[in-house]
Design brief:
This protein is about 95% helix and about 0% strand. The chain is an all-alpha fold and about 90 residues long. Helix 1 packs across helix 2.
Length: about 90
């Protein structure tokens, strides 16, 4: 249909409504695409942060195990030395 045929058949309000509806549809489509891209970018950033935090937590757990083993070894050595010195006193 030609634009003038629509104008003659349906009137000015309907003839104006068609381009306005198209404009709103295009605008909504563009906004949704921009929001989806922005959300995907934020998700990737957040995902990277979470992975880094998990890696750091694992490293700290490994370091803590090492520290605990060293502490236990020192406590054991000190206890043996104390027991030995008590035996020597008797």
């Amino acid at each position: 249909m030609e634009p003038f045929e629509i104008l003659e058949k349906y009137g000015l309000p309907i003839a104006i409504l068609i381009p306005v509806g198209y404009f709103l549809w295009k605008q909504q489509h563009w906004i949704q695409n921009e929001l989806i891209e922005d959300l995907e970018e934020r998700f990737k950033r957040l995902e990277g942060i979470i992975i880094t935090l998990i890696n750091q937590q694992k490293k700290m757990q490994i370091e803590l195990r090492g520290i605990m083993k060293k502490y236990e070894a020192l406590v054991e050595i000190i206890n043996k030395l104390i027991l030995r010195s008590e035996k020597d006193k008797k």
